[in-house]
Specification:
Length: 220
């Protein structure tokens, strides 16, 4: 329905119809979908020799970018390390136990965030000028970038699994070394590494226990 003959249909109606159409098609993942993404998903440490092409990385990002961030600020930046030269640049920053896990993966993503993310808010949050909330406020910038960049890294793990890829997240490395080498001269700061590819499951051990609802959750 037109709210005004002058300005045409209310764009909110199309947005509302879009999510209603999705829900009419699928209301929840089935058990197998939940197992693939969460309950039976594993972190992987060894990899088949099976490349992951740029087309797949583009499909992956097209999903990841739709994940929610505060004020739609989208601070994550992803460096897809696929070449032997790139892996060699990463090697000195890795804890020794993580070297074969990273070098064996077809892709290692440096999940980083941009401390200048707020400069893009005119595109990402165009209806209000929110840049003054960040300008000169380094602690708020760092906290917002880390919170939302970490979320986007997690979205990448789940999106990768949804596309049939396996993940191996890695925080056992020297962030400062990556920041002053691979990310030198940029406003990017590394958060964690994410190996992507098709896993060699023979490196897996039994899944570790998790904490029960009673210990972790409360209902107010
Ligand atoms: C942010 C993050 C960092 C991690 N860093 C490492 C790492 O440096 N080396 C490693 O072998 N595993 C690492 N892991 C894998 C965890 O040890 C693993 O997720 C955990 O033991 C649970 O196992 P599961 O994911 O197979 O259920 C990391 C996982 C996450 C999410």
């Amino acid at each position: 329905m037109n709210v005004s003959a002058d300005i045409g249909p209310d764009p909110r109606h199309a947005a509302q119809a879009e999510i209603r159409a999705v829900r009419a098609t699928i209301s929840a993942l089935d058990q197998a979908g939940v197992e693939l993404l969460f309950t039976k998903a594993r972190s992987h440490y060894a990899w088949e020799y099976r490349p992951v092409g740029e087309d797949m990385l583009r499909r992956l990002y097209d999903i990841v970018k739709q994940g929610a961030t505060s004020m739609n600020c989208s601070p994550a930046r992803f460096v897809f390390v696929t070449s032997a030269e790139g892996k060699e640049q990463l090697r000195p920053a890795l804890k020794p136990a993580n070297v074969p896990k990273v070098l064996g993966a077809p892709v290692t993503v440096i999940v980083a965030h941009d401390l200048l993310f707020w400069d893009r808010l005119d595109t990402l949050f165009p209806h209000e000028d929110r840049k003054p909330l960040f300008r000169g406020k380094d602690a708020h910038i760092a906290e917002t970038a880390m919170r939302n960049g970490t979320l986007q890294g997690a979205y990448m793990m789940l999106a990768a699994r949804a596309l049939g890829l396996d993940c191996g997240p890695i925080s056992g490395f020297d962030n400062a070394m990556v920041d002053r080498t691979i990310l030198a001269g940029t406003s990017l700061r590394s958060n964690f590494l994410l190996n992507l590819g098709y896993a060699d499951e023979s490196a897996l051990f039994p899944k570790l226990p998790r904490l029960p609802f009673e210990e972790v959750c409360s209902i107010l």
